[in-house]
Amino acid sequence: MAKNILITGAGGYIGGTLLTKVISQENGLIKAANITATVRSAEQAQRLSEFGFNAIELDLKNEEVVKQAVISNNIDVVVHIASAMETAIAANLIKALGERRKLGTGKAYFIHSSVTAVFSKENGWPFGEVKDTDPLYENEKQLAPGHPVRDTNVLVTDLAKAEGVTSLIVVVPVVYGTGSGEFRNISSAIPSFIRASIELQTVYKFDKDATPATTHVSDIVGLYMLLVEKILNNEPLPTGDKGYHFAMAHKTSWWKVMQRLAEELHALGLVNEPNVAIWPSDEMAAKSLGWPPSYVRAMGTSSGDIIPVNPFRLGWQPTWTEERFLGNMDEEIRATLEQGDKFKSTLYDSL
Questions:
Q1: Contact 32, 2 (CB under 8 A)
Q2: What is the pLDDT of residues 109-161, one digit of tens each?
Q3: Contacts of 160 (CB under 8 A, 6+ apart)
Q4: Are residues 126 and 255 in the same domain?
Q5: What element of type H or E holds 57?
Q6: Degrees (nearest 5) of the Cα angle 19, 20, 26?
Q7: Rounded distance between C-alpha atoms, residue 234 and residue 198, angstroms
């Protein structure tokens, strides 16, 4: 029997790219699955429906409407990409899957999307080097509450277990590259630097370099596809308190990225110099980049000593490297200029 899959955030960058990838499959169990996609507006739902998608405008913060959507569409698997930091949304989706399970429909799966930054010293991670096979749930739970992403990770594991739902957490790094979704096709991080540089006519970097985990959007989507395929095939997976999956393909130096941006933007006449300056203050960086002031330092200077194990054990094969990424900086700029401010990120609105 074909499974029914719900993808949240289908109007966004990663979610939209995943949706088009799923729909384009020519074989496999994913092709036979029934896909429902949630979006933020009636206009987005109408547009996707014209392309043959079962798209619904859904207020994910409304517990009752989420439950109705999951039950009426007979959802077995939720791939939640809409938010890493809003516990209420994750809770609503998991509870809805739990209610559906009570109808005797078999197993239910919840794939949550988190971020790698919470496993860095700058974000309060005290345990040093970390693998996704380490006891991450136990370590996160013993830390003081208050970090929205970490709190949501713990909530997902605890509530899913209580509801009889099988949970997995895909820990997403800095993502780059041009997506294939119908609406937003660029990330939030790199374009924010590009826009700020053009506005200020100078490329700035933080006074401390960072080498965060980094992955091309196509490789991120490849991991989601791999996990869903294995779920549909009833293959064994690390789940629950052992279900963390670090989606890191490589690390990237922010200073190298800024230097490449300076060179490319200067060649286009969009900044004054092909060199990089230091941000005069974190306050200026936060305002220019559109990042939350209380997190800007951690976001701009954190690396995190993380080691992905689970995705590669499952057969994940990312194709992009740091060298390839740096060599394609002109494409990052082109895509950002092409999209402009049309879909400005709301990622940090809740902070």
A1: yes
A2: 999 999 998 998 888 899 999 999 999 999 999 999 999 999 999 999 999 99
A3: 94, 110, 166, 167, 240
A4: no
A5: strand 54-57
A6: 110
A7: 49
**DSSP-assigned letter for residue 247:** -
Side chain identity at residue 343, one-letter code:
F
| Alpha-helix residue ranges (DSSP H) falling in the chain | 13-23, 29-32, 42-50, 63-72, 87-101, 136-142, 148-163, 189-200, 217-232, 254-267, 282-289, 296-301, 310-313, 322-327, 329-339
Q: Is the pLDDT of residue 32 over 90?
A: no
pLDDT, one tens digit per residue, over 39-51 is 988 888 998 888 7
Q: Which residues have CB under 8 Å from 177's CB, separation 6+?
A: 187, 216, 217, 218, 320, 328, 331, 332
Task: Report CA-CA distances (Å) from 58 to 37, 64, 225, 291, 336.
Answer: 9, 11, 23, 26, 28
Residues 203 and 81 in one domain: no
- Residue range 175-190: average pLDDT? 92
Amino acid 347: pLDDT: 47
Closest by CA position to 41, among listed 184, 247, 142: 184
Q: pLDDT of 6-18, one tens digit each?
A: 999 999 999 999 9
Question: Inter-axis angle of helices 254-267 and 329-339, to 10 degrees?
Answer: 70
Domain membership flag for residue 33: yes
Check whether residue 101 and residue 198 sit in a common domain: no
Structure tokens at 92: 């609503």
Q: For residues 60 and 32, is the Cβ–Cβ distance under 8 A?
A: no
CB 34 within 8 A of CB 4: yes
Q: How far does Cα 133 stand from its chain's mean position?
A: 20
Q: For residues 93 and 160, what is the distance between their CA atoms, to the nearest angstrom?
A: 10
Q: Per the domain annotation, does 75 fall within a domain?
A: yes
Please tell me the predicted confidence (pLDDT) of residue 96.
98
The domain containing residue 197 runs over which residues?
182-211+251-302+318-339
d(CA 316, CA 224): 10
CA triple 209-344-267, angle to 5 deg:
55
